[in-house]
Design goal:
The complex is a heterodimer of chains A (175) and B (371). With 175 residues, chain A is an all-alpha fold. Chain A has ten helices and no strands. Chain B contains eleven helices and nine strands. The chains are: A mainly alpha (175), B alpha/beta (371).
């Protein structure tokens, strides 16, 4: 299938498959490996932030900097594990956990009002003032039963976000 | 509360709407009142980011697509080995010989003409033009180039420019062997640069430097001057600004389309069965690329000279450029992507991100109004 798969043995593929709970098929893992090698220009074994940012579609995403913190320097196995949250077969808790991690930038397991405001700032750029964001956020949080001082845990996120409309599916092209 | 802070950003009229090409489901149509769930749900944006990590149309444009290896079993492998021997042992030396012969003939005619005919400009130009066409034919022969030209041959008239899609510097050589064009090019180092500054000067060339922004105005002026001169060779421009892998076209720069002249599109499509003619300048030098071509069986391509186009009333240069790009892509059977080729060398403009941010902000504030 080309030279990329010859450096990935059957053992490697099965090992990666196990770590992502068999969410990806073997063909998809081979495709992801080709993509990994394409992005990792000098075969370092990981993709640097700069190399991620050379994909314009990624660089122009408002959450690119936050995601970069999570994917910068990952080796192939962890790269696949990260992407498994985007698999159509991934469970809802797994998807929501990825969303939670994007908000919880200091990895302390709690998402505060401030954390949410920062994400909203990333998403709205210069088109909403801090005051506007704060007002909107206070209003919707109070309606949902939370105050400005509440910290949300992963369970809260699951409670709030779990609904069938939440789709976060990316298809891995397999040639 | 309801007014979005519109910063000083007019939506960049300078580029076609990328949203027309890319899926935009980060703005799901609002249904009812804004709830906490709607604010926290960043899944569409994350999905776009994940999608970009897994596959993106920009990187695809610059992927080399070598011909499929077919030497994978006991019977075909010896045949392939024989092929290698023929290509490297027989074809390659013959081609080097042809090329050397060509250079000898060329230089022995060009140098005298260049120095001796100093006073007779018209004659000198005619001969030099013919000689450049000759050396290009020798180059094409040295790769066993089989070029099918379709359409009426370009003629030299003022107020017209030729544009073509760009796969490698050999595009220029292939077109030049038929008609001596003047060309606008990036200045290269090494022996290519030497040829650029000596021989190509005689057909009239304009230099630019991608990394210099101020250069744009100077180049623009030079283009205009060239096009208006009646005596100058017809100008050939590659509006993509960079080499693309012949399966896609990236956005055309508008420089060629705002000169007020007729634009004659040329489409070039290489047949990949014989060799992948894409020059991946990040991977190989031009010399390596040429050597690769000279050790392949052949370079087979089609060149279509298409119907000259003029800017329609009320059309902006960008729209004109996109329209011509559509004509070329359709003829060559390749896909269009909405990216600027120079993104190979630099980061996307923050304006692209701002479009998404503005859409998000407006959607939130609008939904807040619906009680």
């Amino acid at each position: 299938m080309g030279s990329a798969s010859s450096t990935l043995t059957q053992y490697d593929i099965e090992d990666v498959q196990e770590h992502c709970n068999n969410l990806f098929s073997q063909q998809e893992i081979v495709s992801l490996y080709k993509r990994f090698c394409q992005l990792d220009r000098n075969a370092k074994g990981f993709i640097s932030a700069d190399e991620f940012l050379s994909v314009p579609e990624f660089a122009m995403n408002p959450l690119s900097q936050r995601l970069l913190k999570m994917v910068d320097g990952l080796n192939f196995k962890d790269f696949v594990i990260f992407l498994s949250a985007f698999n159509p077969k991934a469970s809802m808790p797994q998807k929501i956990e990825l969303i939670f991690k994007v908000y919880d930038s200091d990895y302390n397991g709690k998402v505060t009002f401030k954390d949410i405001m920062e994400v909203l700032r990333d998403l709205s750029g210069s088109f909403m003032s801090d005051k506007q964001i704060e007002e909107v956020l206070i209003r919707v949080m109070e309606e949902a039963g939370y105050s400005k001082d509440s910290s949300l845990l992963l369970d809260d996120f699951v409670k709030i976000l779990d609904h069938p409309g939440l789709k976060m599916e990316v298809e891995v092209p397999v040639d | 509360m309801s007014k979005v802070n519109s910063s000083n950003m007019e939506l960049d009229l300078d580029r076609p709407n990328i949203e027309d090409y890319l899926p935009t489901d980060s703005i799901h149509e609002p249904l009812g009142k804004l709830r906490l769930r709607d604010l926290l749900d960043i899944s569409p944006t994350l999905r776009e980011a994940g999608g970009a990590i897994v596959d993106d149309s920009f990187t695809r444009c610059f992927k080399s697509n070598p011909p499929e290896p077919w030497n994978w079993n006991v019977y075909l492998f010896p045949l392939w080995c024989l092929g290698v021997v023929v290509r490297y042992g027989i074809l390659f030396p013959v081609r080097v010989l042809i090329l050397t012969l060509g250079w000898i003939i060329f230089l022995s005619c060009y140098i005298p003409v260049h120095w001796l005919l100093k006073g007779h400009d018209k004659l000198k130009k005619r001969i030099e033009r013919a000689l450049v066409e000759l050396i290009c034919s020798f180059f094409v022969a040295s790769w066993t180039g089989v070029v099918n030209y379709h359409g009426p041959r370009p003629c030299a008239r003022p107020k017209q420019v030729f544009v073509a899609n760009h796969t490698s510097m050999i595009d220029f050589i292939i077109l030049e062997q038929m008609t001596a064009f003047a060309v606008i090019m990036q200045k290269h180092p090494g022996w290519v640069g030497l040829i650029q500054s000596t021989i190509l000067e005689s057909v009239g060339c304009i230099w630019f430097n991608r990394s210099e922004a101020k250069d744009r105005e100077i180049v623009s002026r030079k283009l205009r001057e060239h096009v208006e001169g009646a005596d100058n060779n017809p100008l050939l421009i590659f509006p993509e600004g960079t080499c693309v892998n012949n399966n896609y076209t990236v956005m055309f720069k508008k420089g060629a389309f705002e000169l007020g002249s007729t634009v004659c599109p040329i489409a070039i499509k290489y047949n990949k069965i014989f060799v992948d003619a894409f020059w991946n300048s990040k991977k190989h030098s031009f010399t390596t690329h040429l050597l690769q071509l000279m050790t392949s069986w052949a370079v087979v391509c089609d060149v279509w000279y298409l119907e000259p186009q003029n800017m329609k009333p009320g059309e902006t240069p960008i729209e004109f450029a996109e329209r011509v790009r559509g004509i070329i892509s359709a003829r060559a059977g390749i896909k269009m992507v909405p990216w600027d080729g120079f993104l190979k060398y630099s980061r996307p403009s923050p304006k692209l991100k701002e479009v998404k941010q503005q859409a998000f902000a407006e959607s939130v504030l609008r939904r807040l109004e619906d009680k």
